[in-house]
Write a structure and sequence with these properties.
alpha/beta; 8-stranded mixed β-sheet; two-stranded antiparallel sheet; about 20% helix
Length: about 130
């Protein structure tokens, strides 16, 4: 178990998708399919839709929020995002998705040392308290 800090509270459960590289959602994430399309990213071609995305932080600008918001609307967003520190773009997307679509996703801040305990394909559950179980 890992004790994270909830930036946006919520619960989620699913398969982890872990990367040590930041992800640009603008031009890097296809909100129609939930696939990572940045050909320079190690997860290129992998679908993050419905998974627990573990990423150190977003890369880029506020367009991250817009792309994630569209992914929530399309049903192709990650089930939760676990990140190191507070990423305001991830948090804003979840908060606005809750207001607009009554669908938010948890955003949990982890210590960098804790991220190493998570691996792709691992089954993970996220509690509203920020507790991560695997």
């Amino acid at each position: 178990m890992i004790a994270g800090r909830p930036i946006v509270e919520g619960t989620a459960e699913g398969e982890a998708l872990v990367t040590n590289e930041a992800l640009s959602f603008w031009g890097g994430y296809d909100f129609h399919t939930g696939e990572i399309i940045d050909q320079h990213h190690p997860l290129a071609g992998v679908r993050a839709a419905g998974r627990i995305l573990v990423v150190p932080f977003s890369k880029g600008s506020s367009t991250t929020t817009a792309v994630l918001l569209e992914a929530v609307r399309a049903g192709t967003a990650p089930a939760a995002i676990l990140t190191t520190g507070v990423d305001s773009f991830f948090a804003l997307a979840s908060i606005v998705a809750d207001v607009m679509y009554a669908k938010s996703f948890p955003v949990i801040a982890l210590e960098p040392k804790d991220v190493g305990a998570l691996q792709t394909r691992m089954h993970v559950s996220v509690e509203s308290s920020g507790l991560i179980k695997f």
